[in-house]
Amino acid sequence: MTRERHCLPLVRAEIDTYSQPVVFMHQDCHVCRAEGFRALTRVRIACGGRSVIASLNVVTGAGWLGPEAAALSDAAWAALRPRLGDMGQFSHPELPEAASLIRAKVYGERLHQAQFATIIKDAMAHRLSDLDLAAFVTACAGEHLSTCETIALTRAMQEAGRSLEWGEGPVLDKHCVGGLPGNRTTPIVVAIAAAAGLVIPKTSSRAITSPSGTADTMEVMAPVALDTAAMRKVVEAQGGCIVWGGALRLSPADDILIRIERPLDFDSDGQLIASILSKKAAAGSDRVVIDIPVGPTAKVRSENAAEALSARLRATAREIGLDLAIHVSDGSQPVGYGIGPALEAMDVLKVLRRTPDAPGDLRERALVLAGLLLEMSGETAGVERARVLLDSGAAEHRFMAICAAQGGFAEPAEAPYRIPVEAPRDGVITAIDNRLIARVAKLAGAPQQARAGVLLMARPGTLVQRGQPLFEIWAETPGELAYARDFANAQKEIFRIEVPK
Known about the structure:
Blueprint: E1 7-12, E2 22-26, H1 30-35, E3 42-47, E4 50-59, E5 70-72, H2 74-80, E6 87-91, H3 98-106, H4 113-124, H5 130-139, H6 147-159, E7 172-176, H7 186-195, E8 200-204, H8 214-221, H9 228-238, E9 240-244, H10 252-264, H11 269-282, E10 287-294, H12 303-320, E11 323-330, E12 338-339, H13 341-353, H14 360-376, H15 382-391, H16 394-406, E13 417-422, E14 427-432, H17 434-443, E15 453-456, E16 463-464, E17 469-475, H18 478-490, E18 495-498
Parallel strand pairs: 1-5, 2-4, 7-10, 8-9, 10-11
Antiparallel strand pairs: 1-6, 2-5, 3-4, 3-6, 12-15, 13-17, 14-16, 14-18, 15-17
């Protein structure tokens, strides 16, 4: 069989498959028939000295793609970079070595660093399908990664990317394990630390299972998709930055795993630790504060769970050379007033600008975390020093300078569509369900729609009357507004309201 029998001209499908290379071929295509390709088959495509392994989607009708060409998703097109009409050569890829290792993990075997490195290498080379990766993520969930395996996975993920260096002196970082809507302390902490003359090159992620990640919120106010050279210029000029880590490829394997975890809507302690600490080490940080909110509807539900997570974080950090401080905080209710990128940005700015309506809980949380970082750098009274930097306006000034250096500051905009959700009865609010209120914000469009989310109008301890607004849903389209409203109205325990005895 000649080489041409395995070739087809390549066209662009103009379909976003969320970083997964996908190839579309007609069921009557001669290559499909010759090679025995079926739907979801892993296919190797070579073109112009480059190659990619893609998942096959089969077109069955006489529609947009005939049997005479193959169409590439955005991710596959970016990997191959063909010119329109270039020929692609198709073949079966070799079975990835990682496949047997994932199977071993599914059946409970413990893996060492070299084996994790093989899985990471094959994942980054797109030799693993999303089904393979989902099996790996699931096999590592719960308590299925030991501390030794967590350390091994962290090292494998760190070594798969590149690491930054910042010269002499402490390099700071801060991270929250998540699960607490509105807990957007990072921009405030970075501003305070940088105003104190410290180095804090903060790389942040976009939302995985929440209505907003730090990068999503920061992007409302300034560009975050900086490359390494641009990031370095910001840090050299201002001492700190808040950028999206995905653009830097410091721990690229983590971005692949996050893509799988997002639709699954879970992550495990071991993978959470490997994700956090591999990125901190790769970013060049050596002193890190970790915030662990604990509450009945937070990601970490109990003090015992927080202690177990803290122990594994400390053990892993020690092995990879990070000085770690852990702050266990109250995760019983959302922080601030806003949930969603723009709404959280508004809260951040109110704290930095010291306005009378600034959320006090967000302010105090940020001061405590900034104080811990300052003390790790030699300050004796970190919280007091942080308070002076915030109250004097020095933190606000530094934050605005960081935004300008990253590409320019923009004020957060309000959503065009809003509707209140009212109290169904008189009583005292005794609790807010973090997961349900976050779900409302996501159904309203957050974080993809930056102005979407939830504005809290009442907090636990408040006496409310029937018909009084509890929160307001913000959306960018009427359809998303109605979808979120219907979900909110169907839930009985987003706000727990009890009659005073």
